[in-house]
């Protein structure tokens, strides 16, 4: 087996804004049909409305939640855990990925376990975190951190590894020092991959926070999800679920926008 | 003393598979005077790039010496600049940013960088494209940027490894023409690798013909065509004579290649 064999992350997907097109029209239509079916199915007796709720009920619940459910307090609790976990993950994994990506030995030693952790659902570590850190914000942060850290490390490493040797040689021909090569060639070249990692990490960090709150919290969006789940308040449960999705989607779209800017120089 | 002095040069590469060292260039001796334009031709794999990169200080010398103005080459230096064949532009930098790159590496002051970069961008005819990124440029334009970047650092020696190798025949001729004009004005010493015989003759004061197994110099041919040269010399008897001579060399190489392959079969 050659030295380069081993698990490789899939090439980072290219960011593209959806263009308004036939497919967009079809999507909108299918969403509309979905809402329509959801609304009328309980009334036609096709499903039990207690379990499925209805769009109009969810809308009403959303208004209730917005005015009188401490929504902002719960959102702030979740957001704090997310920001701290994700921020710490960024601080740790970008430098680590850059360093590991430059060292061939470090790469061959650490890539398999890192890939395993990248692929494994880090949520399964939640019980361990609870044992170590107790029930509270620390465990939530830890799970969000663990979710976010591996996609960033792995993608950063991949970006550093895919450094263009021709560009390195060109830089050396102009007398670039190792430091110059690092800062002017390797890191800028890896930037698009790093941002892909940052994007993939968002969903995992959100998941970490919410699932953490399902188990170990007295507040937060995840806590509200369990509360309303237990009370069979499907309408409110869905409001919180949608709020979480919107947050994740917005963050992801934001990073995608950065990605698109960075990749302007990348031809197809 | 000549500006570039290559003496009994040997270059070997590690071949991890067999564990032996592969000799790419052996016994190469070559002097290039200041301001001279020397081209190197030869079949692919005969060590042209290796020789050029060694002069650039990018490939370690395993035997013999290379000196520029009497100083032994051990690493790249500001007295030399390389124009590579393929896209060696930084894709995330604009044309201006790319031309500034060498100036940044060689610690030119900030003001000088922009001014000089723009001057050479203008010289290669890309003044209106300074803000473009490489993927927005044609192959010919990209090579102009490469040339501008190399000239901007004010090297004494310009080293070019098949800079027009990826261009179509017509663009290639135009670029050769422009390169000569610039070279005549800038008075640089030029070492230029190509596998195109016409290009080798058209540009050169002397053509170095290399052969393979291992890479060596077969002949050094002086080209006595007065400058400035124009494309019509390509049809002259004089040019045809040079062309025949180089073709004979390369045909010989091709024949020996087939013999080797036949023996292995
Ligand atoms: N980095 C390298 N490692 C091992 N062998 C090499 C390397 N670069 C070139 N070679 C070998 O050295 C010989 C000469 O290569 P090169 O100088 O690129 O030839 P040319 O430019 O004339 O086509 C070839 O046989 C090539 O395979
Ligand atoms: Mg070559």
Biggest beta-sheet profile of chain A: none
Oligomer: heterodimer
Do you know the CATH topology of one domain in chain A?
Answer: MetI-like fold
Task: Briefly note the structural class of the backbone of chain B.
Answer: alpha/beta
Structural class of chain A: mainly alpha
Number of strands of chain B: 10
What is the CATH H-level superfamily of one domain in chain A?
MetI-like
* Distance separating the two termini of chain B: 48 Å
Q: Largest interface, per-chain counts? A: A-B, 21 and 27 residues
Record keyword descriptors for this entry:
heterodimer, A: 0% strand, globular, disordered N terminus, B: 265 residues, alpha/beta, six-stranded mixed β-sheet, four-stranded antiparallel β-sheet, 7 helices, 24% strand, binds magnesium ion
Could you characterize the architecture of this molecule?
The complex is a heterodimer of chains A (268) and B (265). With 268 residues, chain A is mainly alpha-helical. Chain A is built from eleven helices and no strands. Chain A has a domain at 72-160 and 186-265: MetI-like (MetI-like fold, Orthogonal Bundle), CATH 1.10.3720.10. Chain A is globular. Chain A starts with 21 loop residues before the first helix and ends in a 6-residue tail after the last helix. Chain B has seven helices and ten strands. In chain B, helix 2 packs across helix 3, helix 2 (95-105) packs parallel to helix 4 (139-152) and helix 3 crosses helix 4. The A-B interface holds A 166-167, 169-176, 180, 184-185, 188-189, 191, 262, 264-267 and B 56-58, 75-78, 80-82, 84, 86-88, 90-93, 101-102, 104-106, 133-135, 153. The complex binds adenosine-5'-diphosphate and magnesium ion. Residues 48-49 of chain B line the site of magnesium ion.
């Amino acid at each position: 087996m050659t030295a380069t064999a081993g698990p490789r992350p899939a090439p980072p997907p290219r960011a593209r804004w959806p263009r308004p097109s036939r497919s967009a029209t079809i999507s909108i239509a299918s969403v509309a049909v979905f809402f329509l079916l959801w609304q009328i199915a309980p009334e036609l007796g096709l499903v039990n409305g207690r379990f499925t709720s209805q769009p109009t009920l969810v809308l009403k619940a959303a208004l209730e939640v917005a005015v009188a459910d401490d929504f902002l307090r719960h959102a702030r609790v979740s957001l704090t855990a997310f920001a701290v976990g994700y921020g710490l993950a960024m601080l740790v994994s970008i430098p680590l990925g850059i360093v590991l990506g430059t060292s061939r030995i470090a790469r061959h030693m650490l890539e398999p376990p890192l890939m395993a952790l990248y692929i494994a659902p880090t949520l399964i570590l939640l019980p361990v975190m609870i044992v170590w850190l107790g029930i509270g914000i620390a465990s939530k942060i830890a799970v969000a951190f663990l979710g976010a850290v591996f996609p960033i490390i792995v993608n950063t490493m991949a970006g550093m590894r895919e450094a263009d040797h021709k560009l390195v040689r060109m830089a050396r021909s102009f007398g670039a020092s190792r430091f110059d090569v690092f800062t002017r060639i390797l890191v800028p070249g890896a930037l698009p991959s790093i941002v892909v990692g940052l994007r993939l990490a968002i969903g995992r960090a959100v998941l970490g926070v919410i699932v953490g709150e399902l188990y170990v919290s007295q507040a937060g969006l995840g806590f509200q999800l369990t509360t309303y789940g237990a009370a069979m308040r499907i309408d409110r449960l869905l409001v919180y679920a949608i709020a979480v999705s919107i947050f994740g989607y917005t963050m992801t779209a934001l990073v995608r926008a950065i990605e698109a800017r960075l990749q302007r120089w990348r031809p197809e | 003393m000549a500006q570039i002095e290559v003496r009994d040069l040997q270059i070997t590469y590690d071949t991890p598979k067999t564990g032996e060292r592969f000799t790419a260039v052996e016994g190469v001796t070559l002097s290039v005077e200041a301001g001279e334009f020397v081209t190197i031709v030869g079949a692919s794999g005969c060590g042209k790039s290796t020789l050029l990169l060694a002069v650039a200080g990018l490939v370690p010398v395993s035997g013999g010496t290379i000196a520029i103005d009497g100083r032994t080459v051990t690493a790249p230096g500001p007295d030399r600049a390389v124009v590579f064949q393929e896209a060696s532009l930084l894709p995330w930098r604009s044309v201006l940013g790319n031309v500034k790159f060498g100036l940044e590496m060689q610690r030119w002051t900030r003001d000088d960088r922009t001014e000089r970069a723009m001057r050479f961008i203008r010289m290669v005819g890309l003044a209106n494209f300074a803000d473009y990124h490489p993927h927005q440029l044609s192959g010919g334009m990209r090579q102009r940027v490469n040339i501008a970047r190399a000239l901007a650092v004010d090297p004494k020696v310009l080293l070019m490894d098949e800079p027009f190798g990826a261009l179509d025949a017509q663009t290639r001729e135009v670029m050769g023409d422009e390169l000569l004009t610039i070279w005549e004005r800038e008075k640089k010493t030029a070492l230029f690798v190509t596998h195109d015989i016409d290009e080798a003759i058209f540009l050169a004061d002397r053509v170095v013909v290399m052969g393979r197994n291992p890479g060596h110099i077969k002949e050094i041919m002086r080209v006595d065509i007065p400058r400035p040269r124009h494309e019509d010399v390509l049809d002259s008897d004089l040019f045809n004579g040079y062309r025949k001579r180089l073709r004979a060399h390369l045909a010989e190489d091709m024949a020996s290649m087939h013999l080797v392959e036949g023996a292995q079969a």
